[in-house]
Amino acid sequence: MLAIDGGNSKTAVALVDVDGRVLAQVRGPGASPQNVGLPRSLEIFGDLVTKAAVAAGLSPGQPIATHTAAYLAGADLPKEEEDLRVAIEGLGWSETTVVGNDTFALLRAGTSDGIGVAVVCGAGINCVAVAPDGRTHRFPALGRISGDWGGGGHIGSEALWLAVRAEDGRGEPTALLPAVIAHYGVRTLAEVVERLHFAELEFDPHALCPLLFEVAAAGDAVARSVVDRLVEEVVLLASVSLRRLSLLDEPVDVVLGGGVLTGTNGVVVNAVRDRLSQVAPLAGVRVVDVPPVVGAALLGLDALGAPPGAELRLRTAYESQVPVG
């Protein structure tokens, strides 16, 4: 079974046998078709799959698996999932192929059965939910045009916006101002704004996201308001999904993943747990403890009807690895 977790910032590929033994695992750059285009996505996938096949002692020129389970960032709409499935299926890696959004892999990685809600906040933010009867609920997750708020890039942009307004007098005083100035190594943010305007400086908002959390942790009210807004958004995503599937009063797992949520020493996770308990008292909030590619592999093993011990064997192989969102 060939498992692919294709994220915005990284891609992980694993070859796993039906008993859950990991035959090969490789990682590479992000391959979201929304960011790099479908041809480049397929090129990255193909390179990593070839490396995995060689590592497993297989010939990359032949079908290397019975089933491919590809769970990808950028597969946000049914048409995108179908287009990607057709494209990947055409590469001839396996007899059957399933393509889904990468948040489904997160949900399976964090549960024993793929039932519940998963919210991911890394480069972007997304949420999916699966009910015990198979019904699903999901959001388009296309950014601001689909109502999204959050993600590392968004939060980093907020850090710069708030710092600039603090400097020019339109905003409240905040420790984000000296922190962002220090980040860029300038005397004023007006210099940064001008250099960004003339394309003399490349703006990487993701680099400012951890900085905002650091300033918030030190007690800055302005930065803390952004963290609170993120907590509110995560709770909204989870609670709306639970409500739409009539699970608000049921014991259900809510799985959190992605670097923005898991890299804050529990600041966001603990607040989400407290607030969600007020609307879904039986829900259990948990942070995924294995990389999402494990979820993709588990969904593939589910499709193949793997024996009961396969899941434990697979999870054990990854248990010492740091989760990647």
Draw up the topology in text.
Blueprint: E1 2-6, E2 10-16, E3 22-29, H1 33-36, H2 38-55, E4 65-72, H3 78-89, E5 94-101, H4 102-109, E6 116-121, E7 125-130, E8 136-138, H5 152-168, H6 176-184, H7 189-197, H8 209-217, H9 221-244, E9 253-257, H10 259-262, H11 267-276, E10 284-287, H12 292-304, H13 309-318
Parallel strand pairs: 1-4, 4-5, 6-9, 9-10
Antiparallel strand pairs: 1-2, 2-3, 6-7, 7-8
CATH superfamily of the largest domain: ATPase, nucleotide binding domain
- SS class: alpha/beta
Average of the residue pLDDT scores = 94
- SSE ordering: EEEHHEHEHEEEHHHHHEHHEHH
The side-by-side strand order for the widest beta sheet comes to: 3-2-1-4-5
CA-based shape: globular
Number of helical elements: 13
The main β sheet shows up as: 5 strands, mixed
Computed over alpha carbons, the radius of gyration is: 21 Å
Distance between the termini: 22 Å
- Under the CATH scheme, which class of the largest domain? Alpha Beta
Count the beta strands.
10
Number of domains: 2
What percent strand? Answer: 15-25%
**Unreliable segments of 5+ consecutive residues:** none
CATH architecture term of the largest domain: 2-Layer Sandwich
The percent of residues in helical segments reads 40-55%
CATH topology name of the largest domain: Nucleotidyltransferase, domain 5
Characterization of the model:
The chain has 325 residues and is an alpha/beta fold. It has two domains: 2-110 and 289-318, 2-Layer Sandwich (Nucleotidyltransferase, domain 5); 114-287, ATPase, nucleotide binding domain (Nucleotidyltransferase, domain 5), CATH 3.30.420. The chain contains 13 helices and ten strands. The strands form two sheets. It has a five-stranded mixed beta sheet, with helices on both faces. Strand 4 (65-72), helix 3 and strand 5 (94-101) form a beta-alpha-beta unit. Helix 12 runs antiparallel to helix 13 (309-318). The chain starts with a strand and ends in a 7-residue tail after the last helix.
